[in-house]
Amino acid sequence: MRLPEARSDFDAVILSIGDITSRKQTELSLLDRESFWSDVIRTVPDHLYVQDVLSQRMIYSNHHFGHTLGYNKFELHAMGEFFWEILLHPEDAKSYQDMRLRQRHHGHNELLQCVLRFRDHENNWRCFDVREQALAWDTEHLVTRIIGIAKDITEQVASSQSLRDSEQRYRMLAESISDVIFSTDAHLTVNYVSPSVERALGYSADWITRNGWSAAIANPQQLTGFDALISRISKVLNKPQELARLRDEVTTRMFLFDCLRADGRKIPVELRVVLVWDEHGNFEGIFGVGRDISQQRRAEKDLRMAATVFEHSTSAILITDPAGYIVQANEAFTRVSGYEVAQVLDQLPGMLTVESEQEAHLRYILRQLNGQGTWEGEIRLKRRNGEHYPAWVGITAVVDDEGDLASYVCFFSDISERKASEDRIHRLAYYDALTHLPNRTLFQDRLHSALQQAERQQAWVVLMFLDLDRFKPINDSLGHAAGDRMLQEMATRLLACVSADDTVARMGGDEFTLLLQPDITREAALTRAIHVAERILTSLVTPFVLEGREFFVTASIGIALSPQDGSELSKLMKNADTAMYHAKECGKNNFQFYQTDMNATALERLELESDLRHALEQQEFTLYYQPQFSGDGKRLTGAEALLRWRHPRRGL
After folding, report:
1. Distance in angstroms (rounded) separating the CA atoms of residues 622 and 527
2. How many C-alpha atoms does 551 have within 13 Å on its Cβ side?
3. Which of 98, 215, 313, 504 gets the highest tally of CB atoms within 10 A of its CB?
4. Per-residue DSSP letters for 455-514?
């Protein structure tokens, strides 16, 4: 190697040699790393890119975006550098710009997310979940470069859209199935509850919407899991990253609750919950289905309970096959009927009924069972010893899961004591305890019915009021026991004077009333009234024998006819009573028909009695003494005391 000797010496060179082994190794290592990460990025199925925020130019892309949309590199090149803006859905442009603006000013430490739609090669819109993170920013913390990843979620959005498209069908199903279906809005407020909730829990859908499901939960501790899910959703509603994680993690959740029905009963309910998302990945709410799972538990419990009830019931129970032959009976059946269970197996229940009622009752019962599936009512049955007794019987047709008749279940109980008690109560309520005649209540009911019947048939009704004359002295002198015997015999005599269709009642004390069945004409009614009244007066000619002595009483009878003397119950009774008092004033032991002037006389008498009472209070009476002399007028023999009334209107 020759060194140059002058400036113009171009045939000489200077050679510098250095060891660059380490640098070459570093370069090779960087190339290897770049090749490695390039391979990694290319294998990522999603579109990965780096973009300059200010110029909107793509600095780097793994080119999966165009491939996913079905475009080759020549087609993308023909669309230009900003091909993605051309393919972006017009409705999503604003959302994208808003995200970029937020990314520029506030996104240096925040992951931003949105769902954008791009047109593929087949002119269909595909949805991408776009997530971007700041990669570089300037000294003012304004983002200058971002790194992003776009994931094709078209199939997921389509599934969500399909779910929403099916919502109407679900609502229609919700109206007809027994499961309780509900949904919430994006704020977790219940916005729909199926009407089946009223059948399942007894609450209206509006009540659940207002109060929430927690109000229907019997054990609040069972809400822990459900509340935790609701709380988790509430916390991430405004956090896209965590909301996206929730969408990936939570699919279907199942919870078990004891729900408290409106009637106080508890039932176990299985609740299945799914989260609903729209095509953009936004949370739309919760969709839930609640199902009563107590059927199997209840069926097992019912079987055990039914066996216990069957064996220990106080009512007789027997079970027949579909043909009606007895296949099973309980112990109470033996106590009530007198038959051992073995004696009635494979027999028809008709052997237990009274023969005179058997055929007609069985035909009627079978018609009811065929039409309604159940029948309940009163039947006269007979015991093994032949004794007849009233029984309350219920029969139910039992069908299997296919709806075919499986058996008949019959229960019955002896209601002899109940019937006797009802009869006693009825007699106490509607009959006089002493004479066993109808009392005032029953008599007025019959009179009311007779007046209605007479009005429809344009007939005449006869009402008679009767009061015994001279009964009080006998009752006071001989005692109430003797007076009661006289009233009882009087009731017997009155019944003998009328027909079986007529009514004789005791109103109280020694007053009786008689209601004669309606007659078509007034003349017939008058004739019959006179005939009955005369028979009554004639019957009293025979003395009453009390304590070995004979006593005579008479009767005063008042008679009123409807509609002549009134078509209303109260008016007719008042007029008959007025006629009776008129009979007393006419000397007793007679009968009088009501006349309109009787009320005026009675009113005058009542006014006189009232004025007399006021005269005593107002000191309107004045005492006068009038002397009395002997015939010659010379000797005073006495004095006559006169009480004179100075009436304020009538004078002295």
Report:
1. 52
2. 24
3. 504
4. HHHT-EEEEEEEEEETHHHHHHHH-HHHHHHHHHHHHHHHHHTS-TTSEEEEEETTEEEE
| Segment 339-372, tens digit of pLDDT | 998 898 998 888 888 876 667 777 888 888 888 8
Judge if 41-152 and 159-292 fold alike in CATH terms.
yes
pLDDT of residue 208: 85
3-state secondary structure of 530: helix
Confidence of residue 532 (pLDDT cuts 50, 70, 90): very high
Cβ–Cβ < 8 Å for 126, 70: no
Length of the chain: 652
Q: Number of C-alpha atoms within 13 angstroms, CB side, residue 213?
A: 27
| Domain ranges within the chain, ordered by starting residue | 41-152, 159-292, 314-419, 431-609, 619-652
Cα distance between residue 393 and residue 368, in whole Å: 13
- The four Cα atoms 567, 573, 575, 578 give a dihedral, to 10 degrees, of 180
HSE-up of residue 24 (Cα within 13 Å, Cβ side): 4
Q: Which of 468, 453, 476 is nearest to 510 (CA)?
A: 468
| CA-based R_g, the chain, Å | 54
Q: What is the pLDDT of residue 15?
A: 64
CATH number of 41-152: 3.30.450.20
3 state DSSP class of 645: strand
- pLDDT exceeds cutoff 90 at 98: no
Q: Residue 445 — very low, low, confident or very high, per pLDDT cuts 50/70/90?
A: very high
List pLDDT tens digits, range 446-478: 999 999 999 999 999 999 999 999 898 888 888
Give the predicted TM-score (pTM) of the model: 0.42
Integer angstrom CA distances of residue 506 from 316, 430, 444, 510, 524: 43, 11, 11, 8, 26
Residue found by looking up tokens 């035909």 in the block: 363
Domain 314-419: what homologous superfamily? Answer: PAS domain (3.30.450.20)
Q: Are 381 and 352 in contact (CB under 8 A)?
A: yes
CATH architecture for segment(s) 159-292 = 2-Layer Sandwich (3.30)
- At 432 the three-state DSSP class reads coil
Could you tell me if 575 and 566 are in contact, meaning their C-beta atoms sit under 8 angstroms apart? yes
* Sign of the torsion formed by the C-alpha atoms of 275, 276, 282 and 283: negative
DSSP for 389-429, please give it: EEEEEEEEEEE-TTS-EEEEEEEEEE-HHHHHHHHHHHHHH
Task: Give how far Cα 137 sits from Cα of 49, 55, 102, 107, Å.
Answer: 17, 14, 14, 10
Nearest alpha-carbon partner for 150 in 117, 104, 106: 117
CATH, domain range 431-609: 3.30.70.270
Q: With the C-alpha atoms ordered 239, 241, 245, 251, is the resulting torsion angle positive or negative? A: positive
pLDDT at 239 over 80: yes
